[in-house]
Amino acid sequence: MRFLSFIYIVTLALFCVGCGGGDSESPPAASTIIVNSLEDSSKAPAGTMTLRAALAAAASGATITFDQSLDGGVINLTVVADYHTELKGEVMGMRMEPSGPVSYLVGYLARDYGSSGLYARKDVVIDASNLPNGITIKWNGAEDARVMAIYGNLTMKNIAITGGKSVAVDISATNPDQLWTLGRGGGLAVWGTANLENCTIYGNSCQGDFGRSRDRGAFGGGLYADIALIKRCVISGNTVLGAGAAGGGVYSVGGADSSATYSSVAECAISGNKISGVYCYGAGVYSDGGGIGNRKTLLLTNCTIARNLVEPSPFTPADTLGRGYWRGSAAYASNGSVMI
């Protein structure tokens, strides 16, 4: 894996109990599955193991690692694992007050996140730390899809994630309760803890539309996670486009569905990410502080956050011209605090 050079002065040691997602009946000691093929297939030939096949076969919490022969290789994903990926997300309601209509948080419920190249409902560990040059997982399919979605906890080491694109799609004909899929997590979408170390997340994107529904906002060009614990990573060149846009590099809900009290970004470079829209927050890193009603913390330790951009979108509808806001080109936090 090729990373920017850093001189680290202080190392932040973090421990966090993540939210669930695992199977209580999983074996006490997680097994290891070794991927030895760069092909993208769920039915690998005898004697070979692809990442897609390993993800399907692994027990919750089992470690997926890679054969030495794959060092520096690229896994080009071309198959959509799920067109209607289910993860949790906020559901907003509207009530009338004397002053007029007011939105409020209903809760965090199952939502349709649209297309994902890889998808699993369990705790997942993908570890390429035995490879000097790591492994790249790239979405290279003909259709738009994020690279991977995990309903559970995700641990990744020495992995690059690129090429993902999460786009809000009209599903009103089949889902009257949710009119659009959620354009969130262009590279990775995790409802649980995203524990990333020595990873690179680059060249991913999210796209919402320009309606007035919060659901059609676009969040997390590189990573969207309930809890983010990120260490020694490069997050660069990710984009978000939508009327509401947030978290060009990283969007952390902050532990809405967990007892964890913080998300953390340590010893990372977050650069060259961009969000465009009408109401925009946090081109580098965005924290929602655990969601409305919570006051959880985002920790930024020994990071370089540079050259991220928040800007109006060229697609801004005429009826919104003259309105809007563009906040936090480096970082932005709602409902909680930031410790730097």
Helix-strand blueprint:
Blueprint: E1 32-35, H1 51-57, E2 63-66, E3 74-77, E4 86-97, E5 100-112, E6 116-120, E7 124-127, E8 135-139, E9 146-151, E10 154-157, E11 159-162, E12 165-167, E13 183-184, E14 188-197, E15 200-202, E16 205-207, E17 218-219, E18 223-231, E19 234-236, E20 239-246, E21 250-252, E22 262-266, E23 269-271, E24 274-281, E25 285-287, E26 297-301, E27 304-306, E28 309-312, E29 325-327, E30 331-333, E31 337-339
Parallel strand pairs: 1-2, 2-7, 3-8, 6-9, 7-10, 8-11, 9-14, 10-14, 11-15, 12-16, 13-17, 14-18, 15-19, 16-20, 17-20, 18-21, 18-22, 19-23, 20-24, 21-25, 22-26, 23-27, 24-28, 24-29, 25-30, 26-31
Antiparallel strand pairs: 4-5
Work out the radius of gyration.
19 Å
Described by strand count, sense and barrel closure, the largest sheet is:
14 strands, parallel
**Residues in helices, as a percent range:** under 10%
Low-pLDDT stretches are 1-30
Structural class: mainly beta
| Terminal CA distance | 27 Å
Number of strands: 31
Count of helical stretches? 1
- The 3D shape can be described as globular
Mean pLDDT: 89
Strand percent estimate = 35-45%
Multimerization status: single chain
